[in-house]
């Protein structure tokens, strides 16, 4: 899993590297050289470029880049924004060095002062130092970049708060973002991810032990993280594990079947749907591999059934009624992973939860659980996922187009999935996959993150065959089964 950093951690990494003997000027030089290499490779016919530079160190990167590109025969024009008397020593030196080059430098007070007609722009206005709303020329330049053919953002697009992905002013769509030292958390959250273009991470020589020592708090989970060992030849269904899924109330029985089929496709040994007497009769007919028990109408069987399972899921297609409450109450004392989804999430208010609990709200459910609004959840999803975890003392899986998994200490950001998943039943499939990943790895946020990633990866593979529009959760389950030969190693 790829570690992601926030501004404080990046500053600490820079600081310790400088203390270790590499100067701030050298770090800037490495950042700018990496950016120049990427731009020249990405735009091989580049003959001229305009660089928008601020007076912080992000601007310093832009000034160094102008000099390096000039040396490589690219005509560079720098537009400098801000009070130059506030420049750091490194940035000032880079500005002074431009006097020995043919780079043109224009101090910019208003966007109307932009004279160059270059197609390619570099945004080196603000980096991880952005800490307030963009106003005046800072906002106007972002609007100006909206109309440029190709914009490379240095470190982060200057409208993005790098810790949260929040927009601090007008936005533009970058062709690529060239980030320095380590990828910044905010670049992986929507809607920033859709605007930052391709992401290039430039190694500026931060020693590995310093990078490890800052203590990462966020990770990106990718399909390359999904590889796992093949099962031994003497494997049996008891070892594969038992999943109990409670739900499938009349009219919404399909949700429990989808979760059950996904759990089987994920590798569970035995899957039982605990449901109403009425639904129970139909489950085996719909999918013979699924077992069923009328637990929602047979209170006396609940305790035994919970004891038999290795992972319990409560919620897919569950009507939030008294029978559901009784199950939740009985599950509170079990010491095994319990996933609370869909219908169960409506019953959590003022209720003590099982000790090993995963909750899987979509933004609407998250807003209900946090007594907030969908807009607030989506505006600050990292914060919402953390609050959910802390409030319910559970691993929170906040399902969005970039699902977040948070255990109150670490956050994982998923990188897979596509808009074809915007269809009813996809969440039920995720719940089934989550159950099997917990069977395989135990109760950890990392296991939940892999389940979310596997769900999205299967959807990405499925859409190659079926297209995004009209993707059926059953197609995803089929794709998941076909993934195993690729994901299992000796
Ligand atoms: N350190 C190193 O060794 C390396 C650093 N590197 C590079 O440095 C970048 C970080 O540099 P940085 O810390 O100087 O911050 P930066 O983002 O340039 O902002 C500067 C100042 O802008 C201001 N400001 C904030 N918000 C504003 C707003 N809305 N509108 C207007 N002004 C606003 C605020 O100053 P204030 O006005 O509050 O005094 C802030 O301090 C980093 O992203 C990377 O590119 C790499 O070269 C690798 C080596
Ligand atoms: N645009 C998208 N990109 C990636 N994943 C998506 C997208 N839209 C939906 N999903 C995923 O699909 C699932 C939908 O879950 P949910 O809203 O609970 O559906 P349901 O309750 O109908 O089963 C979640 O895992 C979510 O992350
Ligand atoms: K920038």
TrEMBL record:
AMP binds at residues 399-403, 427. It catalyses: (6S)-NADHX + ADP = AMP + phosphate + NADH + H(+); (6R)-NADHX = (6S)-NADHX; (6S)-NADPHX + ADP = AMP + phosphate + NADPH + H(+); (6R)-NADPHX = (6S)-NADPHX. One of its GO terms (molecular function) is ADP-dependent NAD(P)H-hydrate dehydratase activity. CDD domains: YXKO-related (cd01171). Residues 10-212 form the YjeF N-terminal domain. Binds 1 potassium ion per subunit. Its EC number is 4.2.1.136, 5.1.99.6. Its cofactor is K(+); Mg(2+). Pfam families: Carb_kinase, YjeF_N. Residues 220-487 form the YjeF C-terminal domain. (6S)-NADPHX binds at residues 57-61, 127-133, 138, 155, 255, 317, 362, 428. InterPro entries: Carbohydrate_kinase_pred_CS, CARKD, Nnr, Ribokinase-like, YjeF_N_dom, YjeF_N_dom_sf. K(+) binds at residues 58, 123, 158. Keywords: ATP-binding, Isomerase, Lyase, Metal-binding, Multifunctional enzyme, NAD, NADP, Nucleotide-binding, Potassium. It comes from the Bacteria. GO terms for biological process: metabolite repair; nicotinamide nucleotide metabolic process. Belongs to the NnrE/AIBP family. In the N-terminal section; belongs to the NnrE/AIBP family. Bifunctional enzyme that catalyzes the epimerization of the S- and R-forms of NAD(P)HX and the dehydration of the S-form of NAD(P)HX at the expense of ADP, which is converted to AMP. This allows the repair of both epimers of NAD(P)HX, a damaged form of NAD(P)H that is a result of enzymatic or heat-dependent hydration. Homotetramer. This is Bifunctional NAD(P)H-hydrate repair enzyme.
């Amino acid at each position: 899993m790829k570690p992601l950093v926030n501004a404080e951690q990046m500053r600490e990494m820079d600081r310790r590297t400088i203390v270790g003997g590499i100067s701030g000027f050298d770090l800037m030089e490495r950042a700018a050289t990496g950016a120049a290499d990427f731009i020249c490779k990405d735009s091989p016919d580049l003959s001229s470029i305009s660089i928008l530079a601020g007076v912080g160190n992000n601007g310093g990167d832009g000034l160094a880049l102008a000099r390096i590109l000039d040396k490589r025969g690219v005509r560079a024009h720098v537009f400098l924004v801000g009070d130059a008397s506030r420049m750091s020593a490194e940035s000032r030196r880079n500005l002074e060095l431009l006097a020995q080059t043919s780079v043109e430098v224009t101090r910019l007070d208003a966007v109307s002062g932009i004279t160059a007609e270059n197609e390619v722009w570099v945004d080196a206005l603000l980096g991880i130092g952005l800490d307030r709303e963009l106003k005046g020329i800072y906002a106007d330049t972002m609007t100006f970049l909206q109309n440029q053919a190709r914009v490379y953002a240095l470190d982060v697009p200057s409208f993005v708060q790098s810790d949260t992905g929040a927009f601090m002013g007008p936005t533009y769509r970058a062709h690529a973002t060239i980030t320095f030292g380590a990828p910044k958390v905010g670049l992986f959250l929507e809607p920033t991810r859709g605007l930052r273009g391709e992401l290039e991470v430039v190694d500026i020589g931060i020693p590995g032990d310093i990078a490890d020592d800052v203590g990462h708090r966020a990770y990106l989970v990718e399909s390359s993280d999904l590889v796992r060992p093949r099962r031994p030849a003497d494997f049996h269904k008891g070892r594969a594990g038992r999943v109990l899924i409670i739900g499938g109330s009349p009219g919404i029985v399909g949700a429990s079947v989808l979760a059950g089929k996904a759990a089987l496709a994920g590798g569970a040994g035995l899957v039982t749907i605990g449901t109403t007497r009425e639904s129970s009769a139909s489950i085996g007919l719909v999918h013979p591999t699924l077992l069923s028990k009328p637990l929602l109408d047979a209170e006396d069987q609940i305790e035994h059934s919970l004891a038999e399972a290795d992972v319990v899921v409560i919620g897919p297609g569950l009507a939030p009624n008294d029978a559901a409450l009784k199950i939740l109450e009985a599950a509170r004392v079990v010491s095994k992973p319990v996933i609370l989804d869909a219908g169960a999430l409506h019953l959590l208010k003022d209720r003590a939860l099982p000790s090993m609990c995963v909750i899987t709200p979509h933004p609407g459910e998250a807003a209900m659980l946090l007594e907030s609004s969908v807009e607030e959840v989506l505006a600050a999803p990292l914060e919402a996922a953390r609050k959910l975890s802390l409030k319910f003392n559970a691993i929170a899986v906040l399902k969005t187009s970039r699902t977040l998994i948070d255990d109150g200490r670490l956050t994982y950001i998923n990188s897979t999935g596509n808009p074809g998943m915007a269809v009813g039943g996809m969440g039920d499939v995720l719940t089934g996959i989550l159950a099997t990943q917990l069977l395989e790895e135990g109760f950890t946020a990392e296991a939940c993150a892999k389940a979310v990633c596997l769900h999205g990866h299967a959807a990405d593979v499925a859409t190659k065959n079926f297209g995004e529009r009209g993707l059926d959760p059953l197609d995803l389950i089929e794709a998941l089964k076909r993934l195993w030969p690729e994901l299992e190693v000796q």
